[in-house]
Design brief:
The chain is an alpha/beta fold and 319 residues long. The chain folds into 2 domains: 220 residues, Spore Coat Polysaccharide Biosynthesis Protein SpsA, Chain A; 85 residues. Strands 1, 2, 3, 4, 5, 6, 7, 8 and 9 form a 9-stranded mixed β-sheet that branches. Helix 1 links the parallel strand 1 and strand 2. The protein starts with a strand and ends in an 8-residue tail after the last helix.
C-alpha cells in the first residue's frame, strides 16, 4: 500500500483537533508523520502553546500505537498563510508515498479512514482520492442535504473524458480530507503557491490533464459541517468567484453555474418532501448570497480595494 503522511492546517483549534489526532493515531493503517501547519498572528509562541496542549492531551489519554507516529509542527504567520503555498510547505516535510491533507475540524468517522482512502491507489492511474463528508449531529436539514448532494453514498472515479458530462464536478476534490499520490503531486508542480481558494480543485484539474483519475471514496468518511450565516456564504462564494477569475484558463473550460442551480432546486424539493418547508426562506436567502457573492468575486478586479477586502472571507490574502 505504501507510506502516508497527514498534513493538517491549524488556526485557533478547538477540541475537534484533539479528536482528529486521537482517531488518526488509532487507524488500522497508521500515518508515519502528522504535520501540523500552524497559522499564528505574528512570529510568537502560538505554535509552541498548541504543541504543548496537544502533547499533554495525547499523553494524558494515550492511544495504542501513538508512539510510532511522529508529530511535526511548522508555524506560519497570518501574512504568510496561503491555501496552496502553506499546504505545499507541509509536503516538503514528507517523503511518504501519499500525502493526506485534512483540516483541523474534520474528524474521522472510524478507524478505517486511511485504509479506505488509500485503497483506490491500487490503480496506478489514480492521482487523488477524497473522502465523504458527513454532518455533525445537530446540523439542519438544509446542511444535511447539501452534504448528500456533494458527497453521495456511492463512490465514483473521474477522468478527463468526463469534463463535458460533469462540468465543474469533474474537478471537485476537497482538502478537508484528500489523499494525493506524492509522485503525481510533484509531477503537477505541487499546489499553486498563491491562491485564495480552490487549491484542491486546481490540483485535480492538473492531474486530470496529466492523465490521472480522481476518485471519490465514499467508504472513507469524516465528520465535517458548518452552519454558515448568509453573510459568511456571501464571503465564501466571493472568494470562490475570485479563484475562478484568477484561474479562468482552467475553470472556463467547463460549465460552472448549472450545478449550483440544480443544488438549489433539489434542496427545495427535499425540504418540502421531508417536512422542512419552513427552511425554504433560509434556502432562498443563502442561495442569493452565494450567487451574488460569486458574481462579485468573478469581477473583483473591477472593484475598489476596500470593497474587495470587505467582501472577502480571507482578508489576509489581500495584504
Amino acid at each position: 500500500m505504501g507510506t502516508a503522511d497527514v498534513i493538517i492546517t491549524v488556526y485557533k483549534p478547538d477540541n475537534r483537533l484533539i479528536q482528529l489526532l486521537r482517531r488518526l493515531i488509532g487507524q488500522t493503517v497508521m500515518p508515519g508523520r502528522i504535520i501540523l501547519m500552524v497559522t499564528q498572528k505574528a512570529p510568537d509562541a502560538t505554535a509552541e502553546r498548541i504543541r504543548g496542549w496537544i502533547e499533554k492531551e495525547l499523553t494524558d489519554r494515550p492511544v495504542k500505537g501513538s508512539g510510532s507516529v511522529r508529530l511535526i509542527f511548522d508555524a506560519v504567520t497570518e501574512e504568510e498563510f496561503d491555501h496552496g503555498g502553506t499546504r505545499h510547505r507541509g509536503a516538503l516535510h514528507s517523503d511518504a508515498d501519499y500525502l493526506i491533507y485534512m483540516t483541523q475540524d474534520a474528524v474521522p468517522a472510524d478507524n478505517h479512514l486511511i485504509e479506505r482512502l488509500l485503497a483506490p491507489f491500487a490503480d496506478s492511474k489514480t492521482g487523488a482520492a477524497y473522502a465523504r463528508q458527513i454532518v455533525f449531529p445537530g446540523a439542519d436539514a438544509m446542511e444535511r442535504y447539501t452534504h448528500l448532494f456533494n458527497y453521495p453514498a456511492e463512490s465514483s472515479v473521474k477522468t478527463r473524458e468526463d469534463l463535458d458530462r460533469l462540468g465543474i464536478k469533474a474537478y471537485f476534490c476537497s482538502d478537508v480530507c484528500a489523499a494525493y499520490r506524492h509522485s503525481a503531486y510533484d509531477e503537477a508542480g505541487g499546489f499553486v503557491r498563491h491562491t485564495i481558494f480552490n487549491e484542491d480543485m486546481l490540483m485535480a484539474a492538473a492531474m486530470l490533464d496529466a492523465g490521472y483519475s480522481i476518485c471519490y471514496q465514499a467508504r472513507a468518511r469524516v465528520y465535517h459541517s458548518h452552519q454558515y450565516t448568509a453573510l459568511q456564504q456571501f464571503k465564501r462564494n466571493f472568494d470562490l468567484g475570485v479563484s475562478h477569475r484568477q484561474y479562468r484558463e482552467v475553470f472556463e473550460r467547463v460549465r460552472t453555474e448549472s450545478e449550483g442551480v440544480r443544488l438549489v432546486a433539489d434542496t427545495a424539493k427535499y425540504l418540502i418532501r421531508s417536512g422542512n418547508g419552513l427552511l425554504i426562506p433560509k434556502l432562498i436567502l443563502h442561495s442569493a448570497c452565494k450567487y451574488f457573492g460569486y458574481l462579485l468575486g468573478k469581477n473583483y478586479d473591477r472593484l475598489p480595494d476596500r470593497a474587495v477586502k470587505a467582501c472577502s472571507m480571507c482578508r489576509h490574502y489581500w495584504k
